[in-house]
């Protein structure tokens, strides 16, 4: 199940080489994550926007056929903007393109949800309930105590301990719900794997292995259940035809509500940690 995104078409690039690469579609500005784009080199530079310097990640891709800019909520906080160069387009042309679209970049950066650091005193939602991180130090294990997530150990290890605990909760919840929904349709889940993909909330392989973004645990239960139902339904239908959607609706009832929530609030999930 892929994450959504917005895409804005722009006029064709000015150089003849760029026009050949882009065809008649022209360049594009995109906040959508492009899947499996092959990177062959990388660099970093700075884009000046309204008098401030914004770090810009630059990546050259063999697969890209046009210039792309994207502001990715899941990107590192110090490199939120990425410029993708297709083969044959130089860095200077790419930077001109980025400068031309600086107002678009500024709007997209302003629209990013705030970061939620894994730090003492921070609050995050876990499966619909608010938890406050509290560093208690000592040899205490990470554990929940009512509305608090108490974390022991040295302060510098707190982010990793919080992340490990959250991932364990996500693994337990997603595995349990996957098997429960699969049982309803007489299917078996061979394995459940968690990751942090940039383009999908979940996926299902032909041999019955499911994969999810661990960040789904930050979403309300009805949203997580919808994503699980989506992938479990692929155990029967490896497509998105009418029978597939009927099966998803059989498993969770409402489809439109969770999809709308992900389209609107999905970037929030990517800003944790």
Order of helices and strands: EHEEEEEHHEEEEHEEEHHH
The average pLDDT is 85
- Tell me the total number of β-strands: 13
What is the C-level CATH assignment of the largest domain?
Answer: Alpha Beta
* Number of helices, where a helix is a run of at least 4 consecutive DSSP H or I residues: 7
Number of domains: 2
**Helical amount:** 25-40%
Could you characterize the architecture of this molecule?
With 273 residues, the chain is of the alpha/beta class. A hairpin with a 2-residue loop joins strand 7 (123-126) and strand 8. It has 7 helices and 13 strands. The chain folds into 2 domains: 7-111, no CATH class; 123-269, Zincin-like (2-Layer Sandwich). The radius of gyration is 21 Å and the shape is globular. Helices cover 34% and strands 25% of the residues. Helix 4 packs across helix 5 (221-233), helix 5 crosses helix 6 (242-252) and helix 5 crosses helix 7 (256-269). The strands form 3 sheets. Strands 1-2-5-6-4-3 form a 6-stranded mixed beta sheet. Strands 7-8-10-9 form a 4-stranded mixed beta sheet, covered by helices on one side. Strands 11-13-12 form a 3-stranded mixed beta sheet, with helices on one face.
């Amino acid at each position: 199940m892929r994450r959504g995104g917005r895409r804005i078409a722009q006029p064709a690039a000015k150089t003849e080489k760029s026009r050949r690469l882009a065809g008649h579609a022209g360049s594009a500005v995109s906040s959508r994550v492009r899947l499996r784009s092959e990177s062959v080199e990388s660099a970093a530079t700075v884009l000046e926007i309204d008098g401030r310097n914004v770090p810009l990640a630059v990546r050259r891709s063999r697969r890209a056929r046009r210039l792309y800019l994207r502001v990715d909520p899941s990107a590192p906080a110090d490199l939120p903007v990425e410029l993708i160069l297709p083969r044959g387009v130089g860095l200077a042309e790419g930077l001109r393109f980025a400068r031309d679209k600086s107002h678009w970049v500024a709007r997209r950066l302003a629209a990013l949800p705030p970061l939620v650091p894994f730090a003492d005193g921070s609050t995050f939602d876990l499966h619909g309930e608010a938890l406050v991180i509290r560093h208690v130090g000592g040899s205490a294990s990470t554990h929940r105590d009512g509305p608090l997530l108490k974390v022991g150990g040295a302060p510098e290890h707190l982010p990793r301990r919080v992340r490990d605990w959250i991932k364990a909760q996500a693994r337990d919840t997603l595995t349990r719900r996957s098997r429960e929904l699969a049982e309803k349709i007489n299917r078996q889940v061979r394995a459940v794997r968690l990751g942090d993909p940039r383009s999908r909330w979940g996926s299902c392989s032909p041999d019955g292995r499911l994969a999810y973004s661990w960040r789904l645990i930050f979403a309300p239960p009805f949203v997580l259940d919808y994503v699980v139902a989506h992938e479990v339904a692929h155990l029967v239908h490896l497509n998105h035809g009418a029978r597939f959607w009927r099966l998803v609706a059989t498993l969770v009832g409402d489809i439109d509500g969770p999809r709308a929530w992900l389209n609107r609030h999905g970037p929030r999930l990517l800003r944790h940690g």
